[in-house]
Amino acid sequence: MSEDQMRYDLLAQEALRGVIRKALRIARDEGLPGEHHFYISFRTGAPGVEISERLRSQYPEEITIVLQHQFWNLEVLDDYFSVDLTFNKVPERLVVPYAAVQGFFDPSVQFGLQFNVEGAPGSEAAPETGDQPAATEASRSMEEPLVKEENAEPEEEATGEVVSLDAFRKK
Question: Is residue 3 part of a domain?
Answer without folding.
Answer: no
